[in-house]
Structure formats: C-alpha cells, structure tokens
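Service request form, structural biology core

Requester: graduate student, group of Dr. S.
Request type: structure prediction, single chain
Budget code: on file
Notes: please return the result as structure tokens.

Sequence provided:
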Amino acid sequence: MIRRLLGTFFLTPLFFTTGVSAVFLCAFGFTFPPLFFAGQAVILLLIGFTAADAALIYGRGVRFSAKRVIPKILGIGDLTEIEIVLDYTGNFPVRIEVIDELPAQLQKRDFSLQHLAEPGRHVLKYTVKPVNRGAYAFGLTRIYAEGPLRFVRRGIYAQTACEVPVYPSIRLMRETETAAFDRISARSGSKRLNRIGQSYEFEQITPFVEGDDFRNINWKATGKTRELMVNQFRDERSQNMYCVISKGRSMRLTFDGLSLLDYAINATLALSNVALKKYDKAGLITFSDKIGTALRAENRRGQLRKILESLYAETERDREPDYELLYRSLDRLAKNRSLVVLFTRFETVQSAERALPILLKIRKKHPLMVVLFKDEMPEQAANAVKNTADDIYLRTLAEKYVHERTEIIKRLRSRGIHALSSTPDSLSVTTINKYLELKARGMI
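Core staff response, request fulfilled:
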C-alpha cells in the first residue's frame, strides 16, 4: 500500500522553492540570528502545509477517472480530434495536468494539457495528424492533480492503452464523393443536369423542361401526347477502371508532411469510391521493380474494402519503376478495354522518354491517363526578381524544372495520352474531375 502510494506522490516546484528559501534563511542566520529562527519557522510551516495538502488531495472523497475517446480508425493526413473525458469528485477545484501517451509516429514528446477542474465531468480535446500509415499505439493517460495548497501533486494513471490503425484518408474520400455527386446528381425538385457528350444509355422519356437539349426531343412520343417529350440518358455503366500507382524512389518526396505516394493512395481511394458509385468496376495495381498489388476490377460488395486494405500496407521502394513489368501485369489482369489512371512522377524529360514506349503500348489497348505531381515553388522561384549570382542560379534551375515538366506533359499529350498535372493537396479533386470529364465525353 505504501509502495503504491509513493508511486503516485509527487512534490511540486513550489515545495522545493519554499524549502530552498528556508535553507538560505538558516544559512544567513549564522551572521544574523533572527533569520535562523525565521528559517526554522518556514520549515515547520512547509511540513505542516505539505501534510495538510496531501491529506486533502488523497482524501476519501477525492476521486479521479479518465477515458480516451478516439475513432476506431484514423486517416492519413486528416486532422482528427481526440477527447479525454475526465470525471472528478471532490469538494474543491484542482489544477490538473493531463499527459496522454501518444504514438511514437506523431513525434510529440512534450505533449500535455493544463486545466483547472471543478468537481464534475470535463472534456479535454486535442488534435493529431498522422503522416504515416500503420498501427498507432496509444499508451496510458496520466493525470497529475495538485492539492489546493499546491505543495503536493497526486498521480492518477488511467488504463486507456489501445492500438488504432491509420488508413488512407476516408474523410477525403467522403468529401470528394459529396463534391462529385453534387455536380452530377439530380436533386429533389430539380431536373437532371445536362452534360457534354452523347455516350449514354437510354433511361426514360420525360416532359420537356427549360434547359433540356432540343436534340433529345422524342418526336414520336411528342406526337402521341401532344406535349414536348425528351429522351433522358444516363452514363454507361460497368466500365473498367484501374488505378496504377508507381512506388519508385521519386515517390518518397514529401509535401506538407506526407509523401507523394500517400497523396496518390488517398486520390486512388477517392477515385475508386466515385467509380464504384457510378456503377463502374474499379481495380488496383501498385508497382516499382516488382508488382505490389494486382486487384482485378470489379464492382462487387466489399471491393472498396479490398482496395483500402491493399493500400494500407503499401510503401515506397528505393528502385526505379519497371514499366515493362507494369505492362505485362496489366495485360494479364485487364482483358477488356479499361481506363488506366497512372500516378507517377517523372523527374526529367529523359525519364519520361524511357517510359513512353511502354505507355504507348498500354495506350493502344486502353485509354491512359497519366497524373503527374506539380510543385508550385519552382514556378514562384522562376517568376521572382533576383539580383545576386546565387539567386540567378536558383532561378535558372527553377525555369529548367518548369520547362521540363511542361515538355513532359506536351509530349505525352501529343501521343494521345491524357496527361494532367496537379499539386498534391488538390490531387484527388483534379483526378476525379478528369475522370468525370472522360466519362461524360464517352472516351472510356
């Protein structure tokens, strides 16, 4: 019992400050005797106040309990709010410090929450932003409560240890799904949104409303009903779409704490979700010097879960991507015409030229969309006014980078490949918009 009590008993800085002051008073008392008696009085008072403070904070009516409220899964790159629910029973307010043992991946070694707690329930909140996928182990929740006299601190250790997996961003997937279907879905009380393209499956005949395309008027139905009737169409369904992610060394580059691979994974999950909602079939291939995941395109229940679980374990490799290996894997997996969305990064025009023959072989069998990453910092550096020799050198390098990236996109597009460039933070939205555009034009 005593050993257990000592494990939770701590003295505060105020105790040591007062004790040091008493020692100095006693020391100076050798030259000025009244100070010696003053020092003794301070020591006696310190002992008395400390004993009283300990009796109060460890009293029978004083109880503490805490629990951590955390989602079952976290999303990489998502700001997630975590709650510490603290219940305090007592007769006086206490100052508390809450130290939640965070996973090592978060790299927060000085994390603590300060709070003045009245008797009752208190909810303390903080946010975390995981930047790596994997299992995150949370430890104990340590609570340190100071007595009302602030000489003694009592430790309470809540058993809240748990392990939470960090998956690709499900929050981003939901947000992009909502944004995509806000554009393409019919809302209650409104007509269906007309879009470009004629590659639709016939759905129904409806009365003409202002804004409908006159070319879709059904004259036979109009003659029968003596009211303008139009044909309504829907997108063609059950089309195949494969997201292909390069895991080469160039994908290790980070932006805002996340690697380019993580951004590609988040965009893949969001795009696959939208494709499945549009009744298309979604598949996945990851590759570097060897194939990581090869998931056939399907639209069965649980396909999105398969894609999510596959993306959870993917990591970058130190080798260059083997596009010939990708072609053989895609040829074996995708027997029918499929939209291939390739997330990759070409560092130079020469690296793009080396991959171009394989990309053209894929282009002959499937519509190919190459998604490249854009860094806005070189563009800003290229447009900045510089004076010194170092500044001019950096500007020249930035201009070369911008020129090479533009040249890569130009060469891909000239060969019939749908190439687009996007900043990492807008990658998901840009990719989904391009997918919806190709689908609306009937190019899938």
